[in-house]
């Protein structure tokens, strides 16, 4: 923390967005240290441990708020701990040189096993919630900036969904001046805090931290330079974190509306539809799985109740009373445990089907726009990108 | 449900917003029945039981999303059940005659005992979250409409906070043409489903359901007529619900910016500051109380661990082995229960202090605006009302 504070003070960024600052004391320590350079700061509190998100800004923060993700892993996966953090997205509104800048900082659920990722559905649901939160809260912003640890590779469903639905651009793909780790990776094998075995399939490392941005029509935003650290502290030896830092210089200019950069890849409408479909299928699978677990738990509850009744009868009837009393504890435990699992997965199913319904609605609108001919198609996308969309009337 | 469907079909509103529709099957039944009159519908899914919120619209719904409240009562208050609902605010975006209309529907935590209201802090936190959600998602809306069961009396802190921070107006106070129950009450003693004893201190009943609205500068919104049911089905005998229905006819006109109705009461800035202060104090009290419970639970955990160690020693040492084994179950139960209480109240403290930090920031800005003279004061309020606020630069 001491060295991180020194580094941030020396670099004197306009804005520094941090994740995984789990201790509020660490934040308070940093805040004191950074006060002269970054007069504005905020720590986003949520969950049991905390979201870990905080921000330091050279410019006054006009407004802030946060949205805690509805789904965030499983409470019984204690060794993974994500559920206890209450992962969230934080929003800051800044007014810079007459521009309204909405800055989002987030940290999505970690991926512990890429081959058998039990958190995939939750991460897709989080990416959708994040995209919807940005979509609905940035309608009057001139510039939107999203930074954070998405725990998503660039081609992963969640990342594509987020970019397609919000229209955000990836600083790494857009900049002409990149310096740092190979392929822009933010978890690299050179970093001594990184589990080398997990990175085995990826010789250069993985890119899961992002700087994403967009500007509304009338403004043009570009990434002048993008730098990453490369597994070491930029000055002394050991790295400041297990993830590499991303440092971007962004440039915002006024521009006639038509100069807004057109999306880089292919026919946009069909791409949006295809990624929405894919996400819908993933959430649908998740709903089915959550319901399966809830049903399974309800059978266990039934079984536990039967067992308990049987034990009570045994104890009352005498004979093997001691055995009955001994077995009473585990069967009550089973009952309570199964009850908790049932409630949790019912809530998971509700959360996932809520997100699925939102996705389905957007999918329906995108299809309508596509069916009504290529003229109206850019309108939906422009509308979506600018948070308008009156064309659908 | 059958009679409710008939009623909604016959009245043929533009928009019908319902709360406490706990069963999705009921919603699906209504949806089928209302399809010809209300082609668009949505059910907001959340929590374990569900938010109970749904909407039927004659006009297409362009977009929708939802925000589940961070704090919503206590899971161990099973007989109250609010925690299990996952109470939320639902947002619909409609485009009507070239206007962007943001419609919010919500249901806040119930008040079970007004004299000793253990949910007061949570309801204030929910009112703040609701106000912030509206504030941040309605910045490009021309008209904002909030309907729902707030479980707040008109003068309650949560209600004042919501109205002061969003600039929403109360249809009942604004309309010149009201017909219905005495004083606009929405829970009246005439209703046979209402607990008469709870209403004893309020001879006419209580007003806890609202239609609130505002229009941005350039538009003018007024409530032409407001009607309520009066404890009976409008046609046959028994009422359709324990709450009276609110039916409003709203009129939106273009108007020069200066014709925007000025807030009805006194010096606005100081009123906002005073309600923010009051809410801050309430949340601060809540944080202290949540921390007290967490500390208490941690002591119980320590005690439970000691007891368990003692019982294990007793069992191992022989002698009163049977007693030790018998006591083992309740002490493990105590440990697990206290652990759950500890985690819950830690999360409560985090959630409350998150809301308190947001409040404090807004309070600071409002004070700055007041200090810098009466000229800039309306600017903050106008900015807040219109979701702008560049004047603070």
Automatic annotation (TrEMBL), chains A, B:
It is a multi-pass membrane protein. It comes from the Eukaryota. GO terms for biological process: sphingolipid metabolic process. Residues 2-243 form the Endonuclease/exonuclease/phosphatase domain. It catalyses: 1-O-hexadecyl-sn-glycero-3-phosphocholine + H2O = 1-O-hexadecyl-sn-glycerol + phosphocholine + H(+); 1-hexadecanoyl-sn-glycero-3-phosphocholine + H2O = 1-hexadecanoyl-sn-glycerol + phosphocholine + H(+); an N-(acyl)-sphingosylphosphocholine + H2O = an N-acyl-sphingoid base + phosphocholine + H(+); a sphingosylphosphocholine + H2O = a sphingoid base + phosphocholine + H(+). GO terms for cellular component: membrane. It holds the Pfam family Exo_endo_phos. Keywords: Hydrolase, Lipid metabolism, Magnesium, Membrane, Metal-binding, Sphingolipid metabolism, Transmembrane, Transmembrane helix. Pathway: Sphingolipid metabolism; Lipid metabolism; sphingolipid metabolism. The chain crosses the membrane at residues 296-317, 323-344. Belongs to the neutral sphingomyelinase family. This is Sphingomyelin phosphodiesterase 2. It comes from Neovison vison (American mink). The lineage of its organism: Eukaryota, Metazoa, Chordata, Craniata, Vertebrata.
